Amino acid sequence: MKISIIGGGAWGTTLGQTLIDNGHQVLIYDLNPNAVQKINQHFHPFFDTILPDGVVATTSLQEVIDFSNYFLLSVPTKAVRSVLKEINPLLKRKAVFINVSKGIEPDSLKRVSEIVEEEIEAAHLKGFVVLTGPSHAEEMILRKLTLLVSSSKDLELAQEIQTIFSNDQYLRVYTSGDLIGCEVGGAVKNAIAVISGACTGLGLGENARAAVIARGIVEIVKVVEIMGGKKETAFGLTGIGDLIVTASSENSRNFMAGKKLGLGFSVEQIYAEQKQTIEGFRTIEAMHHLSEVYHTELPMINAAYDILTGKLDIKDGVTRLLSRDLKSEDF
Ligand SMILES: NC(=O)c1ccc[n+]([C@@H]2O[C@H](COP(=O)([O-])OP(=O)(O)OC[C@H]3O[C@@H](n4cnc5c(N)ncnc54)[C@H](O)[C@@H]3O)[C@@H](O)[C@H]2O)c1
Fold first, then answer.
1. Domain boundary at 177, 193, 216, which?
2. Predicted pLDDT at 275
3. Distance from the CA of 181 to the center of ligand 1, in angstroms?
4. Model confidence pTM above 0.85
């Protein structure tokens, strides 16, 4: 099987290695010539790892489109729409889109599957799958055990992607019929990871982190249900699984960005230091918009939004959350 990978960053290149491990062929496209050059010299662009033969890259979008009928989207969510706008006029046949980026468009509140449906001509869109779950690229590049979920409206297609990516060495992929729940869980957990990191930066302890994770799942469930997914999905790999790995690890850029906020860095300083994707900040913006549109309470995410936009000091954010009306936890 041939797979075209759009975005040769930390995750896209790592998945390229997995596909080669599984006996497939890959071609990675990235607009950054330095990343492409490193990959073609057998180096991962971000990790100190030698890539296997067969992980090859190009800066030519036409070349990667001609390469296969399966496009794996691994660019940051903010680049997804623009890259699809470039792909659409060049695509002259049906193709499957597999998305691994995690986010929701702040203005439109669209999920990536909806953006793909809007930007790719229906006659050329064979299907859409999201491949998501608890996964640090830093670990998968070392072939450490990982479980993911392949979800699509088309169960056969979800199963096909499950088979392509699974192996008996380190990667097991489940399927799910709840595309919305999987897409939303994977996106919103990044917002909660920022909050968890901020608590750590503020010097709060593990009690606080557990509280953020548990109450974070409540906010994720609310969003999953509002957007039309199943709340049970939030209790699986794509929700709580991904939240645990992201909200408790210094390997997570979202956790680390939050930690810096807690340590007193400004948003501008954090972006200046971290050139790679920080999806959580953008997801906080999207979720704040969603809570206004649907008149729903997302207390932690909205406090984070006010902190990010300079309306609230981070310490006052904690006080605001603690001084909310006391209530029962009954579900
Ligand atoms: N890093 C991980 O462990 C991990 C795991 C699972 C999911 N993800 C998700 O995958 C997505 C990508 O994450 P990443 O860590 O690989 O980010 P990254 O910043 O390391 O890589 C993104 C790559 O996309 C490229 N890119 C950006 N805009 C482009 C465009 N218009 N055309 C072509 N290439 C473009 C960049 O040059 C960069 O190489 C994010 O949504 C992230 O949440 C990451």
1. 177
2. 77
3. 22
4. yes
